[in-house]
Task: structure prediction
Amino acid sequence: MNHEVDLNYVRSMFSLAGKVAIVTGGSGALGKAVAQSLAAYCADVVVTGRTPETLEPVVKAVEEMGRRGLAVTCDPNKEDSVVRMVERTVEVFGTVDILVTVAGMAKRAPAEDFPIDEWQQVMDANVRGTFLCCKHVGKIFKEKKRGKIITISSVRAFAGHPGGYAAYGTSKGAVNLLTKQLATEWAKYNINVNSIAPCIFWTPLTQEVLENKALHDVFMSRIPMGRAAVTQDFAGAAVYLASPASDFVTGQILYVDGGATAG
Result:
């Protein structure tokens, strides 16, 4: 066995040239950031969502970087919709190499008052939707004997929080175990399955919380770096887990959290 480092490989290990990525929930702040980050490293990108109009700006941003982009309508909770999304991707691009399951939902309420229907909505969006996308893209990866799956978890899967996360935290805990389960099942097919787990980050959906000083102080007290994440904080994690640089990394939860889970 040659123990020398292949420097030519090292220089190209973050390249995604020739790869096709699917990013679910592509119209949101995190989905857009991931799509653009993958395109910046030369991947062609399919973005999915329920409303086509919200996806077009993301496709345009991908295309402005010289990559091919495609918007596909998909409800991740409906299996037939996921199947059609995957079929459309293969029809247009011929294959798929990377899946990032950004689509999800957050609802907060005291556990004793949490409406069970809303609790189930969060579980369906974050767990069922993630599984269905992994299942059907995973079939293609199994045939190819390679592929990269990146699920999206949260620090709320690591520890509880008094802010009413009985649904969201539980769902992300399930995503963590699903990630490890798929990683162990599919390792023999050379499929890498990992997760990015952020702390609270700035988006239009969290702005109301982060601009409330009392709530802001509660969250920041749990983040040693003293700030919320911004979307570009996920760029490196997404590119790393999608690229050849992580070929021997699977079943891992990568916390992008400013040290929140460190102590």
